[in-house]
Amino acid sequence: MSTGKRYDEEFKRTLVDLYHNGKTQASLIKEYGISQTALTKWIKQYSTVETDNGEILTAKQVKELQKRMAQLEEENQILKKAIAIFTPHSSND
Asked: Looking at the structure, do residues 1 and 37 belong to the same domain, yes or no?
C-alpha cells in the first residue's frame, strides 16, 4: 500500500540523473527508500533524448511528437487518396 510520500521534482530528477550515470535501480531504491514503481515512472517521465542538432527533449515531448506525427501521416494518406480519386487518368497508361 502506498505510504503517500510526496517527492519534489528536483529529488526525482536527481535520482533519474544518478540512474543515467550508472547507479542501478536496486541501489537507488535501497539507498533512498523509494518504490520500484515510483522510480520506474520517474525514469520514464524525466529521461531525455538529445537530437542530432543538440535539442533536449523529455519523454513526454517525444510522446507528443509521435502522436502529432501519426496524425500528420493519417492526413497525408487521406490527401493521397483524394488526389488519386480526383486526378484524371490517361487512357494511354
From this structure: yes
Average predicted confidence (pLDDT) for the chain:
88
Q: Are residues 1 and 42 in the same domain?
A: yes
Question: What grid cell was written down for 91?
Answer: 487512357
**Strand blocks (E) in the chain:** 48-50, 56-58
Q: What is the pLDDT of residues 48-79, one digit of tens each?
A: 888 899 988 888 888 899 999 999 999 999 99
Asked whether the beta carbons of 46 and 16 are under 8 A apart, the reply is: yes
Round to whole Å and give the CA distance between 26 and 65.
Answer: 32
Q: How many CB atoms lie within 10 A of CB 56?
A: 9
Read off the pTM: 0.56
Domain of 74, in residue numbers: 59-87
